[in-house]
Amino acid sequence: MHWLDFIDWLDRHIDLKKLEERVAEGLREAALLWFVFSLLDKLVNERLTKPWMTWNGTLTLAVWLGGTYLEIRRRRETSRKVR
User: Fold this and answer.
1) Contact yes or no for 24/67 (Cβ under 8 A)
2) What tens-digit pLDDT sequence spans the chain (83 residues)?
3) How many domains does the chain have?
């Protein structure tokens, strides 16, 4: 089976738009949950530092924005098809 055949098979059996929507939603939720619980862990252990907050906050924001970008792109494609 050639890899293009596999992609065609996958496209027939999985709605890629819904998959992209779920990935975007998962990225946003995972980023926020990671930030909140890692921040709580640092606060409880009294090891919270500014460099850690900056680094962790930047990574969280990057992942969250990635999920938001996927969602906005999907909505734009959907609105163009409706018009």
Assistant:
1) yes
2) 576 787 777 777 777 778 888 888 999 999 999 999 999 998 898 888 888 889 999 999 999 999 999 888 888 877 777 66
3) 1
**Is residue 34, in this structure, part of any structural domain at all?**
yes
What is the torsional sign of CA 63, 30, 24, 72? Answer: negative
Is 6 among the domain residues? no
Name which of 79, 75, 82, 80 is nearest 21 in CA terms.
75
Determine, yes or no, domain membership for 50: yes
Could you tell me the sign of the dihedral formed by the alpha carbons of 19, 24, 30, 33, in that order? negative
